[in-house]
Amino acid sequence: MFKEIVTDEGAALQAGVAFFITFSVFFLIMFRAWRVRRDDDHVANLPLEGDSETSHTH
Predict the structure, then answer these.
(1) What is the pLDDT along the chain (58 residues), one digit of tens a residue?
(2) Angle at Cα 51 formed by Cα 48 and Cα 53, nearest 5°?
């Protein structure tokens, strides 16, 4: 069935390269999103300025 659709060897190579590029971009975006979430969680847990118990001296 696919032999009738892809008759040129160059077309099959182009489809493979296009799939590889698409998968690579998707993986890169997912990897960066995963790392940003972890960094945001770390920043979200930082104490606010002047919010510690030792800062209250009165």
Answers:
(1) 566 665 677 788 899 999 999 999 999 999 988 887 666 777 778 888 765 555 555 5
(2) 145
The predicted pLDDT at position 53 comes to 59
Q: Determine phi and psi for 6, rounding to 5 degrees.
A: -100, 95
Q: Which of 3, 30, 31, 6 is nearest to 18 (CA)?
A: 6
Nearest to 37 by CA among 47, 48, 29: 29
CB 22 within 8 A of CB 14: no
- Asked if residues 6 and 15 have their Cβ atoms less than 8 Å apart, the reply is yes
Check the CA dihedral 42-48-49-54 and report its sign: negative
41-44 long-range Cβ contacts below 8 angstroms, 24+ apart: none
